[in-house]
Amino acid sequence: MKRDLWAFWGRLAIALAGMVFVILLLLGGTVAANYKGLGNLVKVVTLIKGQYLFDVTPEKLVEGAVKGVVESLDDPYSVYLDARTYSNLQEQIRGSFGGIGVLVGVKDHFLTVVKPFPNTPAAEKGIKAGDIILQIGDRPTKEMDTETAVSLMRGPVGTVVELTLLREGVKDPFKVALTRQEISVPTVEGRLLPGNDKLGYIAISQFTENTGEELVNMLQQLRRQGMSGLVLDLRDNPGGELNSAIKIADQFLSQGPIVHIDYRIGRDYTFHAEPDQLALPLVVLVNKGSASASEILAGAVKDAGAGTLVGTKTFGKGVVQTVFPLDNGAGLKLTTARYLTPKKHDINKKGIAPDVVVEQGPDDRVDQQLETAVKLLREKLHK
Hints:
This protein has ten helices and 19 strands. It is an alpha+beta fold. The strands form four sheets. Strands 3, 4, 5, 6, 7 and 8 form a six-stranded antiparallel beta sheet that branches. Strands 10-11-12-15-16-19 form a six-stranded mixed beta sheet, sandwiched between helices.
């Protein structure tokens, strides 16, 4: 027993040493004034080991302390990622993973389906946009962050995950069992719209490492079909990989800045457009679900005058996260910078106002925003 106790404290001392060192660095000249806080940390750990009813490992205590440090930032975008969640996030950035094929977001504190992807378990089981996910397995999702939710829905191919859903118009919640498959979801969909003027339509669902290349390929396909103008749909696009948004913006801007990245420690950087561009009339659709990288793209188009924004005000996420790998497969997603539009507008918590405001009701049978975009493009073509 005594040997086990010494082993516990030995492992815990090693694990906490680095954390205490970092805390001391953070406190700087205020160490003397804050020594009681460090003492409380040690006292809490001692009480847990000596008085807590259940056994707990030093590693679990340290992980909890790390989570607490990150949560103390009161930043919804800075998150400690355990090994499984970090792995799933990397898969999401790459655009290929084992899962059920559904894009989710948070609406009114509940996990909500933004879009089920075609030919995936979610689509085949009839899951719809707007469905509220009340539980993943036996885990309630209220107040759950999307990273945790994604990690729970993903897993080895062939395994089963059960969702408890609430759907508008359906009185009671219902359960759906889905068998995970290898999901490689394209993030860009495009086509020519009906009519003789050959207007193109491209929707981007999110930004992964592959999105920039997908967009370039889709533009080439539509141009070969004689595309005369383009509607770019960024509605309900939650963002994603920064470099993809920059690569796409470069397709529509001929010169000048795309986005300014403003770091606290002074390593500011501006991404500039290259000369080649898509020299066609452009309308970009946005709404309150257009966030982060979507706003970088929309802000670049608006400030450069490269196109017209139609829809409603965007979400207002004007900060950039960097993902850092940690030991034991874990990771840290940390807000490291803010971004400014080409004209140096800070849109964080403000959003980007469209040039033409068009509301879209949930019960509207006609896509009013898309119809307005098409009308504007035709007016530009016939000037």
